[in-house]
Amino acid sequence: MTACATEPAAEPGDERATRPTDATAHPADATARPMDVIARPTCVIAADGTYAARLALDGECWFPERWTLDGPEPYAVPLPSHQPEEPGTEVMPMSDGRVLIHRVADGRHTFSLLYPTGPGTGELLLGAVECHDEDTRLWLLPPAPDGEHAYALTAGRDSTAVWLVAGGAFGPEHLAEVPGRCSGGVWLDGTGRLLALDRRLDGRTKTVVVDLGRGGEVTPLLQIAEDSDDRLLLADADSGLLLVRSDAPSPGHDRLGWGVLGSTLPIRFPDCLRATDCTVTPFAIQPGQVLTPERCAVALCIDGPAGSWVGVWRPVERQVHHLAAPEGWLAGAGLWTREGVLQLPYTTGSVPCGVTKVTAPAAVVTAEAPAPPERPAARPVPLQQAPLGGQSPVKRRPLSARPTPEDEAFRAEGEPGGENRSPAPVPA
Q1: Phi-psi bin for 288: left (phi > 0), alpha (psi -120 to 50), beta?
Q2: Residue 273 DSSP SS3
Q3: Which candidate, 270, 247, 240, places its Cα nearest to that of 257?
Q4: Domain range for residue 36?
Q5: In whole angstroms, what is the distance from residue 391 CA to residue 382 CA?
Q6: Distance of alpha carbon 281 from alpha carbon 272, whole angstroms
Q7: Full-prediction pTM beyond 0.85?
């Protein structure tokens, strides 16, 4: 695997070609991803919420499109190149208004910055990463919280590499090599230093943390049970709230759970997030709730026989609020404000660039039910052993150590057979 940096000449009179790069991220086509890579939304919103980017379709031709979201009304700017893009091309908005694009051709992954130049599109080539092994996949990570860099993963047969693809000095830079095949990608802090990855090793998937500030040092984060597959889906740096997917409470069947980074309490698996006839995927956490993670509103994308709609849930509640998604919603995309307003991007024939704003329903808190009996067979590593945001990860005791009695039971709210059949959405 090799990296190639390119230093193209800036266009005369164009200052934007020499500005520092900033970044956020977007997904590749499902056909180009390994099976265990978490699917990304079709529209990616910058970490600061100012811009979004997506691939738009004009007849049979795909082209990048940038959305501006921080003005009085959202508006879109097309960024077509000299030829149509492939359906699996990744794009991500930059905080300065440029759009990072990831193209693939014959095992060569190229990265460029696109920007509007009057009637046309300017392009600044950053470099390339070459992956000639058929089993190696490369995809962009979610937006880095610092807004100044963009990262990618290359997952091979036995190891996974972390690359800096935008924001560096000399094109793509290899930052770290992680043993095992990794997927996912969640930022744990507000600086873009601590990256959580779901690592497949020895037949099991567990979440680990890669410290990019310490040369890619790897430490464990999630091990709910020795024989479970545990994945981190979302994390909020302000509150420490974590959303996980694991088969620990129901071997062979994944459940959604939540915990708090650094907490002494075990992970809980609310019964209200369990459904038999649809798929529930969290995609946004309300920021700013520093001292009350249990009151953070979590946005859920619910896919069922009736289509896709939005769910809103808080850890303090024992129910999900089901809301109708706007027509043309770019499913899985959205952003919370600190005040609890969910912004959902959508596009229709009459409104090519729109954002619906939904205020989170008031919390409905019920009395705490008694804790279920302990499950002696499960031996989780509690979250207080996880690395804490802002600090370099430190393993506090070996994973093989026997947990103390008070740590032994994870908590699954509701009875084992209490699966829910989700109701149809209701208008917001």
Answers
A1: left
A2: helix
A3: 270
A4: 1-149
A5: 18
A6: 13
A7: no
Return the structure tokens found at 386.
């996880």
Q: Which of 379, 340, 391 is nearest to 189 (CA)?
A: 391
Tell me the per-residue pLDDT of 294-328, one tens digit each, with 9 for 90 and over: 999 999 999 998 899 999 999 999 899 999 999 99
Per the domain annotation, does 144 fall within a domain? Answer: yes
Torsion of CA 25, 26, 32, 35, to 10 degrees: 80
CA dist 329 and 425 (Å) reads 14
Let me know if residue 1 belongs to a domain. yes
For residue 96, what is the DSSP state?
T
Question: pLDDT digit string (tens) for 81-135?
Answer: 988 999 889 999 988 899 999 999 888 999 999 999 988 999 999 999 998 888 8
**Spatial separation of the C-alpha atoms in residues 39 and 107, rounded to whole Å:** 21
3-state helix, strand, coil in the chain (%, to 5): 5, 40, 55
- Total of domains in the chain: 1
Strands of the sheet containing 181-187, edge to edge, are 181-187, 194-201, 204-211, 217-220
DSSP state at residue 289? -
Q: How many residues does the chain have?
A: 428
Tell me whether residue 258 is in a domain: no
d(CA 54, CA 132): 27
Residue 271 lies in a domain: no
